[in-house]
Design goal:
Bound molecules: iron/sulfur cluster
Radius of gyration: 18 Å
Number of helices: 8
Number of strands: 10
CATH topology of the largest domain: TIM Barrel
Strand order of the largest sheet: 3-1-2-4-5-6-7-8-9-10
Structural class: alpha/beta
CATH architecture of the largest domain: Alpha-Beta Barrel
């Protein structure tokens, strides 16, 4: 029997038993948490932002366990997983007990949950969405979120530095017309690995891989570029190569 918190339930958003796209270099299963306080117009999982489908944690642990033979990790996604702190901590602990690596995709608005997970060494990887430059954050998201997201960024950056996290990246979902935002977010977020993800809506054509590379040319560090047509590639601009050569002396 795998230990877990008494009577903890998850507002369940779905389960993918095998994914090769949620964690570069790993086959994982993905647990989706229902609910998110934010309402991004481009959300790909809008169907699980609200509503209720409560499941016992034990049931979800069984799903994870059932995928174990084909996977080496679990990704917690949503919705916003950190909104359900008790369920997320219990599932991450259960995954650890099963010998699985744990990854989290988060918007960072619940830093207390991140702090608990990192404090108990229950996470290996965090992908943190950064939606805009800090000055535009609260207006864009329609709430007072910026301080929480900044705290999440600081927590994860420090955890990566001190070895409590093995992987940390920030993810920018980019839409045509917002190119200037990228260099500002990159500067405001420190030296963390950065993913430029092609934003897709019905209203404007998405940026191509070539256009995203050209935007990444303005950033002095290596970038992962993620598009529907090309998957995920590592892109190192001339500027980024020069910067890393300087750092190496
Ligand atoms: S923060 Fe993430 S889950 Fe929430 S609405 Fe935005 S894209 Fe969707």
């Amino acid at each position: 029997m795998i230990p877990y918190g008494d009577a903890i339930q998850l507002n369940f958003g779905g389960f993918i038993p095998l994914s090769t796209v949620d964690w570069r270099g790993r086959s994982v299963c993905t647990v989706f948490f229902r609910g998110c306080p934010v309402r991004c117009t481009y959300c790909q999982n809008a169907a699980i932002l609200a509503g209720e489908d409560f499941r016992d944690i034990e049931e979800v642990i069984s799903l994870i366990n059932g995928s174990k033979l084909a996977t080496s990790g679990v990704v917690f996604s949503g919705g916003e997983p950190t909104m359900q702190k008790d369920a997320l901590v219990a599932l991450a602990r259960a995954a650890r007990n099963l010998g699985l690596a744990t990854g989290l995709q988060t918007n960072g608005v619940f830093p207390d949950t991140l702090e608990a997970l990192i404090g108990d060494r229950l996470l290996d990887r965090v992908a943190l969405d950064i939606k805009a430059r800090w000055a535009r954050y609260n207006n864009l998201l329609g709430g007072n979120y910026v301080k929480n997201v900044q705290r999440s960024l600081d927590l994860c950056t420090e955890a990566l530095r001190n070895g409590a996290l093995s992987e940390f990246q920030i993810v920018i979902t980019l839409f045509r017309g917002y190119d200037d935002e990228v260099a500002i977010i990159a500067a405001e977020s420190g030296d963390v690995d950065l993913v430029l993800q092609q934003g897709v809506t019905e209203r404007v054509p998405p940026l191509s891989e070539k256009e995203l590379k050209s935007i990444a040319d303005g950033i002095p560090r290596r970038v992962l570029i993620r598009t529907r047509e090309g998957g995920e590639i590592v892109y190192e601009s001339d500027r980024s190569r020069r910067t890393s050569r300087k750092r190496q002396g």
